[in-house]
Amino acid sequence: GVIAVANVAKRVVRKWQRIHSSHRWEFENAMPEETLVQMNEVRLEQVLRALLDNACKYTPDEKGIAVAVWRMEDQVYVRIRDEGEGILPEDLPHVTERFYRADKARSRQEGSVGLGLAICREIVEHYRGRFTVRSVTQGQGTEVEMMFPAYVLKKE
Ligand code: ATP
């Protein structure tokens, strides 16, 4: 179906904000009708949950998590940025590979398997979107940006 990404993101982020209230949250949202995308709503929720899960997991309490949804030209963008530990440059190209976990994360006993980002990327690309992970330097946080082709109503 056609969904308003801004509405889905607002609902998911609000829920996470309530549960993880020790992080500082920022949320910036475009008008819903500007953010229409042809994709499955449950899939988008799944992606957002995985990304917010990572942001919370790798960001200390009191530090910030910022989510933004906007439309620019024919694209709808979603960005999740955190002030957490960041990702080492040598790990960065691999974090969207299945079962890849950065060294630091590998030593944790949290029962995660390193599938989250790989699945997110596969879902986003399935809907002809782009999935990008950035991290400037370790300690400066991580940014995940997604870009989807905006749904445009066709005129007769
Ligand atoms: P799970 O399968 O439960 O999601 P995971 O978090 O280890 O486990 P991914 O979500 O695929 O797996 O992430 C892969 C790796 O990328 C992580 O192990 C972690 O090292 C790194 N990573 C992902 N998100 C962040 C983030 N927001 N901040 C820092 N490191 C991150």
The geometry reads as globular
| Global structural class | alpha+beta
Strand content: 25-35%
Number of helices: 4
As a whole number of angstroms, the C-alpha radius of gyration is: 16 Å
Main β-sheet: number of strands, strand sense, barrel status? 5 strands, mixed
- Unreliable stretches, pLDDT < 50, 5 or more residues? none
DSSP, total strands: 7
Helix content: 25-40%
Terminal CA distance:
20 Å
Ligands (ions, cofactors included): adenosine-5'-triphosphate
Q: How are helices and strands ordered from N to C?
A: EHEEHEEHHEE
Strand order of the largest sheet: 2-4-5-7-6
Mean pLDDT: 91
Write a structural description.
There is one protein chain. With 156 residues, the protein is α+β, with helices and mostly antiparallel strands. It is 30% helix and 27% strand. It contains 4 helices and 7 strands. The strands form 2 sheets. The chain has a 5-stranded mixed sheet with strand order 2-4-5-7-6. A hairpin with a 2-residue loop joins strand 4 and strand 5. Helix 1 (5-19) runs parallel beside helix 2 (41-57) and helix 2 runs antiparallel to helix 4 (116-126). It is globular, with a radius of gyration of 16 Å. The two termini are 20 Å apart. The structure holds adenosine-5'-triphosphate. The site of adenosine-5'-triphosphate (ATP) has 22 residues, from helix 2 and helix 4. This is histidine kinase. It is found in: Cell membrane. Residues 1-152 form the Histidine kinase domain.
